[in-house]
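Worked problem 6 (solution included).
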Amino acid sequence: MVSIIRRMRVLRALLGIRLGPGAAILPKDVKRLHMNFAVKGNDGHLGPRKFWQRYLPRLKYHNPAVSMTVDRTTDQKGGATMTVFFASTSHGESPAENTESSVNERAEAIDMKNKHESEILDRLMKVTQAVQVEPTEEEELELRQMEEERVKSEEDRKRMAAVTAQWLREKELMAQARASIAGTEVMA
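Solution. The predicted structure is:
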């Protein structure tokens, strides 16, 4: 069975989904997001791909009611777009009083081709007027602890690499010494 400490570290890693770039709450009038880009990252499709991998999970975590679809094509030369669909009501009715026939969708397209993932996020935040999620004091404490653990792990990794290298060197020297002793005994 996996130790409780290891499980807690994995659960704390989920903090990365709750916080960070892309952790934003979209307004209620945003109904869905649709992304269209190529499977491979070349020809200007790397930014959209990284946005999909890094930022979209955080957006979905904070906006579970918003439908987010991704269409990956094999056409490398084609465009890379994100379409944001807003629900716009007619006749000034409140959204609670709307029926299906009175709701129209308004769409905003964001060109993602040859753009960095952070540029795509900035453009999405401006278009939708989304609110960035700020960490609570508790979450900031967890983030600091995770960073301290990461630094300590890196130091431990370096120390163990040095110990392993020393052990291998000693093993090699012992093998050479045994070979030289065996060679002198054969000659005698």
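Discussion: The helical segments are 4-13, 15-18, 46-54, 56-62, 117-128, 137-187.
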